[in-house]
Amino acid sequence: MPKTIQVHYQVEENSEAIGLTAADWIASSVEAAVGARGTARIAISGGSTPKRAFELLADPAHNFCKRIDWGRLLLFFVDERCVSPESPDSNYRLAKETFLSKAPLPEGNVIRIEGELAPEEAAARYESAMRNRFRLEGAELPRFDLIVLGMGSNGHTASLFPHSAALHETMRLAVATQVEDKNPWRVTLTWPVINHADKIFFLIQDASKAEVLKEVLLGPYQPERLPSQLIRPESGELGLLLDRAAASKLPPPAADGRGLLEVGR
Ligand code: 6PG
């Protein structure tokens, strides 16, 4: 019998509601981790979908900023384009503009991927930063409290693109990868690292993602074509936060917008 995992999903009306719920999930994960261990370690993605959540985290009109004990948070990145940290394409720059420049997160608590370096060097330095911050030994993997992912309409997540060599990297924590994009090189966490997290959630919106999301969750296992299928937490939770358009091909959620799927491994 194939193993199955449970995937929780929540469907929201619009991107503002996705932003509010995502900010709440992030703040709750930080609160829980700080409460349990005195520190929280999270990794965030770039892309357009998380932008509103990031802005809300630092917005004084909401309580997310006050709920987060910023001095006890270590912030990592899921992936990065190999560009300078000032580039409009940099995930670090997105985080800086939306919340790092406004929230009291000490600079030393931000572990960015140095996209300005040669890709292999940036990946090696990021791996070694993770080893130090998590005090890892040997083949140990970091256990992030939360990893926030997005998904592309081609089924990629993080910078794990269809048919790329990065999909076969299972020994390293981070890897350089070449993608079809105006910035061809990126550095990404490897999928075993993502799957070792305590909580993983995807933020997905737009009708262009509906069919591929259905395939990722309910179709045959084809991770070469649909790398998001590689994301199956070892023992943690997997949640999806979706707008109506992205969720339109999944079984309809309950009246409160929540749904649950059993997904084969
Ligand atoms: C990035 C990502 C990438 C992203 C998806 C979804 O930095 O671009 O890490 O995996 O999450 O491409 O992007 P959107 O939110 O823009 O649809």
Characterization of the model:
The chain has 265 residues and is of the alpha/beta class. Helix content is 28%, strand content 22%. The protein is built from seven helices and eleven strands. The chain has helices at 15-37, 51-57, 64-67, 91-100, 119-133, 191-195, 210-218; strands at 4-12, 40-44, 73-77, 79-81, 110-111, 146-150, 174-178, 185-189, 199-204, 237-243, 258-264. The chain has an eight-stranded mixed beta sheet with strand order 5-3-2-6-9-10-1-11. Strands 4-8-7 form a three-stranded antiparallel beta sheet. A hairpin with a 6-residue loop joins strand 7 and strand 8 (185-189). The longest helix has 23 residues, at 15-37. The model has no long low-confidence stretch (mean pLDDT 96). The protein binds 6-phosphogluconic acid. Residues 45-49, 78-79, 91, 150-152, 156-158 line the site of 6-phosphogluconic acid (6PG). 6-phosphogluconic acid binds next to loops.
Précis, in short:
With about 260 residues, the protein is an alpha/beta fold. It has helices spanning about 15-35, 50-55, 65, 90-100, 120-135, 190-195, 210-220; strands spanning about 5-10, 40-45, 75, 80, 110, 145-150, 175-180, 185-190, 200-205, 235-245, 260-265.
